[in-house]
Amino acid sequence: MLADKLGIMRTIPGFLDPALKLGQLRKGVSFASAGSGYDDITATTLSALPFRRQLWHFWRYKLLIRALLGPRRAERIVNRATFIISAGTNDMLLNYIASNRSAGPIAMLRYKNHLIARLSNYTQVMRMLGARRFVFVGLPPIGCLPIARTLLGRDPDGCDSDLNQLAASFNSRLIQLSNFVNYQPRMRSAYIDTYTIIRAATDNPQNYGSVFHISSEYCQDVL
Fold first, then answer.
1. Residues 53, 54, 56, 62: what is their CA dihedral angle, to the nearest 10 degrees?
2. What is the DSSP string of 60-116?
3. Domain count, the chain
4. 59 is a domain residue
């Protein structure tokens, strides 16, 4: 959707798409893997490509585009490209919380810092490969996601406030990382606050269109 709005292309093709044509490399590709995260264990658990493997594909992409356009043009394309990084929800919910449901706040804090440290390292690797423009997407209110409401929801609204606070705390560190990247020479970074957007929509859905009531009874068998 974002690529379409920017007039780049309707959808960003996956780098591993067998139908990918060399000419499409100039406009951009996706290295993402559904179910992955910043933690390698998350990717292993959910049978996805770990982040470091995605970086390896980025390196392969550079080799291909250098062969296609030459070193100078290839480097210019990578330098001017915008890299959108969005992960963390799978790490928190489907990896850590799912296997450590009794984890206390200190353990959660350590895991959050672990994820931020890994992302910081990944960002430095991407910088070494020529990336200069980053967009970091924050976590949503993960305590209100269906799996969290089913396993842990105990607040009046059915959410888990501890998880939401963890997401907000993670986002604060993500903003710090984004600001740090901005201070680096010839680097640009932005942060997308999905938490506030989604929370506003869930707290006051009537402000965003029609409201439909869905009973939790319809979801129990699925969840």
1. 170
2. HHHHHHHHHH-HHHHHHHHHH-EEEEE--HIIIIIIIIHH-TT--HHHHHHHHHHHH
3. 1
4. yes
Length of the chain: 223
Euclidean distance between the first and the last CA atom of the chain, given in angstroms as a whole number: 29
pLDDT tens for residues 132-183? 999 999 999 998 888 888 777 677 777 888 889 999 999 999 999 999 999 9
Q: Is residue 14 part of a domain?
A: no
Structure tokens at 96: 């850590």
pLDDT digits (tens, 9 = 90+) for 117-144: 999 999 999 999 999 999 999 999 998 8
- pTM of this structure: 0.87
Residue 160 backbone dihedrals phi, psi, to 5 degrees = -120, 105
Domain assignment present for residue 194? The answer is: yes
Per 3-state DSSP, the chain is made up of helix, strand and coil in percentages (nearest 5) of 55, 10, 35
Distance in angstroms (rounded) separating the CA atoms of residues 147 and 51: 23
Q: Could you tell me if 85 and 134 are in contact, meaning their C-beta atoms sit under 8 angstroms apart?
A: yes
Q: For residue 199, give the H/E element and its range.
A: helix 194-203
